[in-house]
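Researcher: Predict the fold of Integral membrane protein.
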Amino acid sequence: MASSTEPGQSPADTAEHTDRTGTAEQTADHTDTAEHTDAPASTGTSTADAADAPPGHAPELALELLVHGVGGTTPQAMLDDPRTVLVTGDETAGIHRRAEDADAESRPGDYPDRPVPEAYSWANLTSGNGTRALWLLLLPFMVANLAHWMRPATRDRGGAVRAYGVLVRLVALSLTVLLVAAACEVALDLIAWQCAGTRACASDRPWLAFLAPEHGGWWSAPGRRLALAAAVPTALTGLLWWLSHRTWSAYESQQPPRHGAGEGDPEERDGAQDLPALRLAGFWYGRRLVARLRAAHTAAGFLTVAAALTAAAASHDQEMGGSAWLDASGRVLAAVLAAAGAFVVWVVWARGRGEKEADDRVDRAIVRALPGTALALLVAAAVHAAWYRPGWSSEGALPGSGAFGVLPLVQGALVVAIAATAWWLRRGGPDGRTVLGGLAGAAVAMLGCALGGLMSGGVAQRTADWLDGPATPGTGGGPLQGPPVVLSWQAATIPLLLLVLAGVAVCFAGRTWRNGRLEAAEVRADHGGEPEDSSRTRAIAGTLARARLTDSAPWLVGATAALTLLLGGVAVLGAWATGEVPEEAAEGTTDLLAAAARSAQELGSWLVGFGFLLLLACGRRAYKDAATRRTIGILWDVGTFWPRAAHPFAPPCYAERAVPDLTWRMVTWTRTTGGRLVISGHSQGSVLAAAAVWQLAPGTRRRVALLTYGSPLERLYGRWFPAYFGSRPLHALHRQVHCWRNLWRRTDPIGGPVLTLDGTGPEVDRGPLRDPLAYGRTSEHPLPAPILGHSDYQADPVFAEERTGLLERLPRVPEQRQAGSGRSSS
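Model: Structure tokens for Integral membrane protein follow.
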């Protein structure tokens, strides 16, 4: 039962109309029906002509769908034409064609020996105006979310997999609490409690005068100052909720085409319960979990602020002998806050991702009631703290700020538990290419905690330094006691961490230099019949050696994570054992040790603040400068490729928009025209292309070829995310897609081979390709050929050869029709 085009309307217009209206789901359902016969529906002039013409002579159309990688490639550059038109989509992400190809479906005879090229541009999903640099503030959340997807490959579908997800979600929750606690430290402790309550600090800042005790105003009471300052972390929590809700609506609320798992494919139908995860219909639509986690994290933020207010008031009521009813109400409020916090943990614990179907349901009782209840408790805590208490004064640090020492301990314990769970899972499904023996998720979770500590400590240290004037916060030389002691200990460990990492970097540099010399000998041997050019040889060898650095990244990540865990533990123990900053703790020891402690604390405090500012500056520059964006783009795009499964405040997942876009385009175009399609993906675009092909119904997938080049599918994704792109899922993709070829170069630091089969079928990989195409000057290359590395794969003649070969391997519509003339077509 196929729809037909209106008179005077081209198939392309029909496809565009389908993309822009609400009938897309019906289109996908009809697609499944047509696919059972392997015969596309008759839906337009070009298809009808193809059916009436003799086999082999019909004007059948072929399409090349280009998907770019990172770096903000424009449609004009992808299509090599300044005149392009938007076929379907919007300014954020859309399908573009050359102006001359806009109506190609109405004249297939003009393309007898070449496909119609069209480009899917998704650059604005990850880069845009400079305000998106603010997303860099969410970097710890993104890193924690990555840890969820780094679960080792295993056949165990039971408790261990679930435990891994729960532990990562708890780490993510601790990061939200850490960020809000840092805002409380700055607003409540350093500004409202310490600075506003100290004459020497408040007198130099007129904007704090109305809060100073000497002013004698209504806001001068410590509890009222704290209640007013609580508006800052409360607003921060609300902003995070709003950003998460807004970006979900703008980026990730795209419905995938609906079809039954394994429908029309015997291999999948027989093992539908064990399909690759990216093949599942609900993989790119996690609305239910994101809404649930967003409510829990928002409530956790509000409860953290409420706990800070309640702890400060309770300290006075219990220690100073305040009003009995205030003491009793404070105890009741603290118990209610503890119960609410336990319920938030249960909400995070109880449910993970459901990927078998696109789940539109929302746990409304939790999503609506939980943040509102937490906000009501926060208001109650603010009223309780603001109640008049005679004789209450603010001295020293804010009571309850010692929680900063508990958070790193909890995070460290969770990371160790993740490592133990990953080790157990690894035993059930070993994969020799998995990085760090399956412990990559634990290492990355540790780095997420370290980044959260760096950013929270950086803000606190810089604010304390600004308020304390020329004195070093916490040393007694200024009006403020400074941030919590544990932050000073953590800052003091940073110089040692950087020193060790500098040594690792030197080792990598030496290894690269040594590899460069070895590669130079191979380059000279490969071009032994040509005149020697030493500078040319060194350039090629250096590129080859630097390209191999990518494979050493796991050691750097593992070393950083292990050292961070060790030094973080030392910092917490030091703070708990001494109760003093490192400089004071070292007093009474040797002069050398005391000087080292003082220098480490001062340098670390400066580095923490500088590192936070540098992070913001790099983010701003990345969105304004194309070269910087290309440099860090691959790391950012890997992080935001994955759905928000652990942290709802992580930056939005562009793939939850891009993958459905590509899937819908392939479904509607092949159904409307019945033509052949090759989806051609470069770099990160190859990952999007593979994910989109996985989402196709089996019948559509048999009419689509996959061409990847400069692809990190195995080299990066397969090693770091083995449960989703490891050897087993990639072999399954090879069996399910009609034909697939991958091009790679040794000079490419990102791409590599994806799947070489040994006599079991057509090999997927072709490479390594020559790079440069010519060593010296030749008649074909009179000028020096550039070293292309990761870019411009289309410049190699092999590219056009492989694309043509893929199109020839796809079944032609007239041949299908002729062979199945006795069957009915839907």
